[in-house]
């Protein structure tokens, strides 16, 4: 009997009502449709591993299809028919991201989830939710969600958008981590190694790392970020290694922004609109920068840029070294 229960198991619906009632206790607006639960005995742990496939969650006339729901049932509770829900492991099928995030937030008012819900416009997401309950039936602090997002889209201000977003994520009660973030921003293919968040009572600390080679930026994208009087930057080719951090308060205001970048400027083309022939008689209309190593640091509203490399103003290349510092408006 023990071998049979450990390998083949049994199917039953005798615990469906308890699981359904527990879900209703968590949120009255959520209903769950369960099929038979399969039980397999873990004899050395004195519990049954319970699993059901093809369950459905219903909320506000919307249906979320689940791949599986797993839990553990202690052997004595099974024999005494006093089963109480200790944990839930919920695996979803591919779902529209906004639909799933809205459902998860019924269980947990995590701020990171609210940010995702407000900014992500589309995409499909698969997630595993691990929930544990205390003796009073409340969710424990070790609430955890793991999964990945595919082909997401975020719409930003001024008609800017981030699309073809793919990443892996893990979200906990007070922290989260997003890894291997690929996306396209205004035609640029970009990649972030990692973005992490840590939450306290007052704000959320966000930090991240970005490392990419051969970024090609055209004039249209450059003008959205850089506007230098009398100079039009035609195109830039660079390698970028960047880390950043900032705090986000309860009103989503950014504070304590800090970034450090090491930039290898492979090549830049700049149209010169200044009259500098008195200084450089054979100055060209297009100025070229090549092989520049640049350190860029921003902290406490202070920007510092230091770099050196080659510059082609006339017929031969020269070397240039520079240090630029901005404090407030100076």
Descriptive report:
By secondary structure, this protein is mainly beta. It is built from six helices and 19 strands. It has a 19-stranded antiparallel β-sheet that branches. A hairpin with a 3-residue loop joins β11 (161-171) and β12 (175-185). The mean pLDDT is 83.
Topology:
Blueprint: H1 2-7, E1 10-12, H2 16-26, E2 30-33, E3 37-42, E4 47-53, E5 56-59, E6 62-74, H3 75-80, E7 87-92, E8 95-96, H4 97-104, H5 111-119, E9 120-132, E10 144-155, E11 161-171, E12 175-185, E13 188-199, E14 203-218, H6 219-225, E15 231-249, E16 254-272, E17 286-299, E18 302-312, E19 317-327
Antiparallel strand pairs: 1-3, 2-5, 3-4, 4-6, 5-6, 6-7, 7-9, 8-9, 9-10, 10-11, 11-12, 12-13, 13-14, 14-15, 15-16, 16-17, 17-18, 18-19
Helix pairs in contact: 4-5
Low-confidence stretches: none
The run of helices and strands is HEHEEEEEHEEHHEEEEEEHEEEEE
Mean pLDDT: 83
Q: Which structural category fits the helices and strands?
A: mainly beta
- Major beta sheet, specifics? 19 strands, antiparallel
> What integer value in Å does the Rg equal?
28 Å
What proportion strand? over 45%
- How does the overall form come out from the CA principal axes? elongated
Strands, total number: 19
N-to-C CA distance: 82 Å
Helix content: 10-25%
Number of helices: 6
